[in-house]
Design a protein that fits this description.
With 77 residues, the chain is of the alpha+beta class. The protein contains four helices and three strands; from the N terminus they run H-E-H-H-E-E-H. The chain has a single domain, classed as Arc Repressor Mutant, subunit A, CATH 1.10.10.10. A three-stranded antiparallel beta sheet has the order 1-3-2. The two termini are 17 Å apart.
Length: 77
């Protein structure tokens, strides 16, 4: 759940795969697996811009991100 949260959080403003991978400290294989799920569930979009592929969190993804953060916060207490 934390990996999903981290990817969705990083992609709020639109980021490249490389930027997300390095900032979340996961590898490309892990990112590809989670990105495929998030794209399929329409929590993330993928768009080509200036010869770069950007991943951006959708409105649905933002709602899920808020829910994930609430769950993780409640587990800490």
């Amino acid at each position: 759940m934390e990996i999903i949260r981290d990817i969705l959080k990083m992609a709020l403003d639109g980021k490249t795969k490389t930027k997300i991978v390095y900032d979340t400290k996961i590898n490309f294989r892990v990112f590809n697996r989670y990105a495929a799920l998030l794209l399929r569930k329409q929590l993330l979009t993928e768009k080509k811009e200036n010869r770069q592929r950007l991943y951006k969190t959708t409105e649905k993804g933002k709602k899920v991100l808020t829910q994930i953060e609430e769950v993780l916060k409640s587990l800490e207490n």
